Amino acid sequence: MLKQHLPELIELNRLLDEAPPELSARVAHTVTVEAAALPIHVLTLGNPDPNLPAIGYFAGVHGLERIGTRVLLVFLRGLLNRLKWDPLLHRQLETLRMVFVPLANPGGMWRNTRCNPEGVDLMRNAPLDALERVPFLLGGQRFSAKLPWYRGPADAPMQAESQVL
């Protein structure tokens, strides 16, 4: 079932199984869809010092947009392969931290929908409202999860996937 719905997660798990010790990984949240427990992985590479610069790579926020996850996994695999032979990369990683969330919305990707399993568009799920006028619906709406670009209920905490990001 996972192969049919989420080949990207299978590839990510394969990458993690083969990863060198320099890559740190944790499951920040698990989404359950149709009895499948789908992890949201946060991967880090480089110096964990919070005073140093960090760069984040995030993909799979909209479940329909699989290409971002696929591109990020290929990039990450290439980076991990370079660790085997590239001393310059090792020196660079002493001065910064790289953070990766290759599949931010596994429930949406499983269901082949833009939103998460609760019907919330994670790109519009924020506790803030625009100060300027925004295009109707396109800027997000709170009427119904049955309409596109649903932001989630007003005054509710951000969705778990959004909090991971």
Compute the separation of the termini in Å.
27 Å
In terms of structural class, how would the helical and strand content be classed? alpha+beta
Over all CA atoms, what is the radius of gyration? 17 Å
Number of strands: 4
Mean pLDDT: 95
Query: Which topology of one domain does CATH recognise?
Result: Aminopeptidase
CATH architecture of one domain: 3-Layer(aba) Sandwich
Question: Helicity level, as a percent range?
Answer: 25-40%
Describe the model.
The protein contains 6 helices and 4 strands; from the N terminus they run H-H-E-E-E-H-H-E-H-H. It is globular. The chain has a domain at 2-111: Aminopeptidase, CATH 3.40.630.10. By secondary structure, it is of the alpha+beta class. The model has no long low-confidence stretch (mean pLDDT 95).
What is the compact description of this entry?
By secondary structure, the protein is an alpha+beta fold. It is built from six helices and four strands; from the N terminus they run ααβββααβαα. A hairpin with a 2-residue loop joins β1 and β2.
Map the helices and strands.
Elements: H1 2-5, H2 7-18, E1 24-33, E2 36-46, E3 54-58, H3 66-82, H4 87-93, E4 97-101, H5 106-111, H6 160-164
Parallel strand pairs: 3-4
Antiparallel strand pairs: 1-2, 2-4
Helix pairs in contact: 2-3
Keywords:
single chain; 165 residues; alpha+beta; 4-stranded mixed beta sheet; 6 helices; 31% helix
